[in-house]
Every structure is written in C-alpha cells, then in structure tokens.
Amino acid sequence: MKNLPVQFWDSPHSCISNRFLSQFTVTIDYPQMLMYLLPDKNKPFATNIDSWGLNIQKDESGKVKVIGLWEGSPAEKAGLQVGMKLVISRSTVRIASLKNWGRP
After folding, report:
1. Tell me, what's the pLDDT at 59?
2. Interatomic CA distance for residues 13 and 34, integer angstroms
3. CA dihedral sign, ordered 99, 59, 72, 36
C-alpha cells in the first residue's frame, strides 16, 4: 500500500470502516494492542473509499472542530480548514458523544 492517508490520535471515538477492512485478512493482537492487515490478493485494492476527508474532535464545550484534512478531499475542496468549528444552519454543532457520528 502506498500513499494511504492515516492519522492517529488518542481517542476512544476512532473507527475503520468495514468497507476498508474487507480488503484484508485482519489479525488483532489484543495483548500487544496491534492490528495486522494482510491484503486479500483476490480483491483489487480500492483507493477510492468513500470519505469526506476530514478528522473531527469534540472540544471541552462539546463543539465539534476539524483537526485534520486530507489533501484533495471533498472537505478540503469545500474550503474547510484545520481548527474550524462545524456549524449547521448558523448553530454550532454540539454533540454529547462521537459514538454514533455519521450513522443514520
């Protein structure tokens, strides 16, 4: 794999999509807190996984801010910048938990 955007931070609200992981044999070493991904040779590696191309984080007040952008992503093309707070209809986005973020 080359040029795969990855960003890590210490947060309990991180996820990797099933669509991405379905391209691999996944082995999780729980005692060592490691995950190994072996590419499935029978599946072409999808480089266009659906993504907005941004990472978000909730601040102390519950406001959601952009903490990372992928170069050329829809979020970057829309003009989002690191540090911006997300606002919908002139109301700052506030959430109690990121647990269900992005789920219908």
Report:
1. 80
2. 17
3. negative
Residue the block writes with tokens 């973020």: 101
Residue among 60, 55, 61, 24 at smallest CA distance from 39: 24
What is the C-alpha to C-alpha distance for residues 99 and 67, in angstroms, rounded to an integer?
Answer: 17
DSSP 8-state class, residue 94: B
Strand segments (E) across the chain: 24-29, 34-39, 54-58, 64-69, 87-88, 91-92
Q: Is the pLDDT of residue 104 over 50?
A: no
What the block records as the tokens of 73 is 């992503």
Read off the DSSP letter of residue 27. E
Is this structure's pTM higher than 0.90? Answer: no
Q: Alpha-carbon distance 21 to 40, whole Å?
A: 10
**What's the pLDDT tens digit per position in 12-54?**
555 666 777 888 888 988 888 888 889 888 887 766 666 678 8
Question: Is the separation of the CB atoms in 57 and 8 below 8 Å?
Answer: no
